[in-house]
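RECORD TYPE: inverse folding
INPUT: structure tokens
STRUCTURE:
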């Protein structure tokens, strides 16, 4: 269970960084579907597919390290 939480944090960080780089360059990331999101004055780039993939990868890595 703790490996999943660590993987989720790693997936969130990965999503913010990679989606920010792809979105800032003007791309959509293909199947990653990077979109510009604005919530109450705070705008950022986001991808649900990237979050799921990054969290799954992080979960697997942390699970193997235990």
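DESIGNED SEQUENCE:
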């Amino acid at each position: 269970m703790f490996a999943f939480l660590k993987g989720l944090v790693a997936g969130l960080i990965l999503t913010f960084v990679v989606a920010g780089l792809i979105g800032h360059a003007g791309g959509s990331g293909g199947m990653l579907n990077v979109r510009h999101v604005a919530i109450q004055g705070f705008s950022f780039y986001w991808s649900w597919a990237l979050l799921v993939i990054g969290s799954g990868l992080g979960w697997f890595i942390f699970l193997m390290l235990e």
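NOTES: The mean pLDDT is 94.
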